[in-house]
Amino acid sequence: MKMKKSVVLLSGGLDSATTFAIAKSEGFEIYALSFDYNQRHRRELESAALVASALGAKKHLVIRFDLREIGGSALTADIDVPTTPSPHIPVTYVPARNTIFLSFALGWAEVLEAEDIFIGANAIDYSGYPDCRPEYLRAFEDMANLATKITVEGKMKFKIRAPLISLKKSEIIQKGAQLGLDYSLTWSCYDPQPGPGRGPDAAVPCGRCDSCIFRVKGFREAGITDPLQKP
User: Fold this and answer.
1) Between helices 14-25 and 43-54, what is the axis angle to 10°?
2) How confident is the model at residue 2 (pLDDT cuts 50, 70, 90)?
3) Whether the predicted model's global pTM rises above the 0.85 cut
4) Who's near 153: CB < 8 A, 6+ residues apart?
């Protein structure tokens, strides 16, 4: 029986890797899509490659473009990554990032004739980014089914799949652990610090940014040791 194809957005982070593992467990042939957008935390791309290889992506495509030309974020401009909570959407928000990423995924999915596009968006333990909310994802799905040749001709209908959208970070980690995901392959920190060694071991998490804080909290509440936390 021929496997169904899916496009999975893969940043190399905890959420996207767990989403990949879920899609694989559902029997999909995975086409992983990552982005080198000249982001501050390029360390994540090393993890994306490791996850794609370990979990058996049919193809791992990395698309390159430069969002530093636009800026407006601590991840794409010379703005410090915040280390204290903000009552507002933090400056680590990258303007329209998920819309940009999902648009590339939609284009590839149309070529592949893959109905399912997976994204690791979460609206529980998150920084309040507007493009991680379920109403946004529903709106993008509606747009996708209006704007593509393959759907207008009635050949298929796209589904934006966000299996983590309503899960706490601890529940996400427990789900990944149940599926055998090796979280040592993943990366979450927005502001990596110099570390010993080479390759993936040449940086250590800052432990202060939003993403680090959510990761530490999630592993603690899950009762699982984070393999990135050195003893």
Assistant:
1) 20
2) confident
3) yes
4) none
CB 41 within 8 A of CB 26: no
pLDDT band at 194; cut points 50, 70, 90: confident
Residues 6+ apart with CB under 8 A from 79: 73, 91
Whole-number Å distance between alpha carbons of 62 and 66: 13
Checking DSSP bridges between strand 116-118 and strand 59-64, what pairing results, if any?
Answer: unpaired
pLDDT band at 66 (very low <50, low <70, confident <90, very high): very high
Region of 59 (left: φ > 0; alpha: ψ -120 to 50; beta: rest) is beta
Tally Cβ neighbours within 10 Å of residue 164. Answer: 28
Under CATH, domain 5-222 is a member of which superfamily?
Answer: HUPs (3.40.50.620)
Three-state secondary structure of the chain = CCCCEEEEECCCCHHHHHHHHHHHHCCCEEEEEEEECCCCCCHHHHHHHHHHHHCCCCEEEEEECCHHHCCCCCCCCCCCCCCCCCCCCCCCCCCCHHHHHHHHHHHHHHHHCCCEEECCCCCCCCCCCHHHCHHHHHHHHHHHHHHCHHHHCCCCCCEEECCCCCCCHHHHHHHHHHCCCCHHHCCCCCCCEECCCCHHHHEECCCCCHHHHHHHHHHHHHCCCCCCCCC
Separation between Cα atoms, residue 175 and residue 23, nearest integer Å: 12
Q: Is the CA virtual torsion 103, 105, 109, 111 positive or negative?
A: positive
Residue boundaries of the structural domains of the chain: 5-222
